[in-house]
Amino acid sequence: MATPTEPMARLTQLLARLPGIGERTAQRLTFHILRSPPAYAEELAEAVGRVVREVRMCAGCCTLTAGELCAVCADPRRDRTLLCVVESVQDLAAVERTREYRGLYHVLHGAISPLDGVGPDQLRIGELLARLPSGEVAEVILATNPTVEGEATALYLSRLLRPLGVSVSRIAQGVPMGGDLEFADQITLARALEGRRSF
């Protein structure tokens, strides 16, 4: 026979498997759910179930969406000649928050990382290449993260894309707003100097 605390322990264990959630935070979340009205727990369970059942990859850009196409791909006002390649759905959201970019996206769902066993075949590169033969895309902007893995992915993609006749660019990198030059590393400062623009 199960002890009364076994369901609590199981929920805590499952919550602790979420990224950024440790055992203590998971325990606090479990107690929060228990103290909330039962309707809240049922809503939470239904929301998790709906996400699993209804969310899938966009047929256009490979982001996550509840429909066939995401809101960006379905928007006829977006500039279809520009394609911004990002590592994750979170990176897409970050670029969108700037409200500066009006083109389309492609989400790779990761970056090349041989040490972690992630090669080009584990990323959505095939889907990216399938979008280019129509000739609609004129420029591919590589917006991978400024990490070793992001740089390796950008280099790999640039070598793959250049022979296809599209312009390939890389987002500028350098010193962040509010940062002090004395604390910036040499590579960041070098990139900031390379990517300088007239003022």
Summarize the structure.
The chain is of the alpha/beta class. The protein is built from 8 helices and 6 strands; from the N terminus they run αααββαβαβαβαβα. The chain folds into 2 domains: 48 residues, RecR Domain 1 (Helicase, Ruva Protein, domain 3); 95 residues, Dna Topoisomerase Vi A Subunit, Chain: A, domain 2, CATH 3.40.1360.
Give the CATH class of the largest domain.
Alpha Beta
- How far the N terminus sits from the C terminus, by CA atoms, comes to 74 Å
Number of strands: 6
Question: Quaternary status of these chains?
Answer: single chain
Q: Please name the CATH architecture of the largest domain.
A: 3-Layer(aba) Sandwich
Gyration radius (Cα, Å) is 22 Å
Biggest beta sheet attributes:
4 strands, parallel
Strand order of the largest sheet: 4-3-5-6
Number of helices: 8
Structural class: alpha/beta
Sheet-strand content, in percent, reads 5-15%
- Secondary-structure element order, N to C: HHHEEHEHEHEHEH
Shape, principal axes of CA atoms? globular
Task: Explain the overall architecture.
The chain is 42% helix and 13% strand. α1 crosses α2. It has 199 residues and is an alpha/beta fold. It is globular and about 60 Å long. The chain has helices at residues 6-16, 23-35, 38-54, 71-74, 89-98, 125-130, 148-161, 186-194; strands at 56-57, 64-65, 79-86, 103-107, 139-142, 167-170.
Write the layout of secondary structure elements.
Blueprint: H1 6-16, H2 23-35, H3 38-54, E1 56-57, E2 64-65, H4 71-74, E3 79-86, H5 89-98, E4 103-107, H6 125-130, E5 139-142, H7 148-161, E6 167-170, H8 186-194
Parallel strand pairs: 3-4, 3-5, 5-6
Antiparallel strand pairs: 1-2
Helix pairs in contact: 1-2
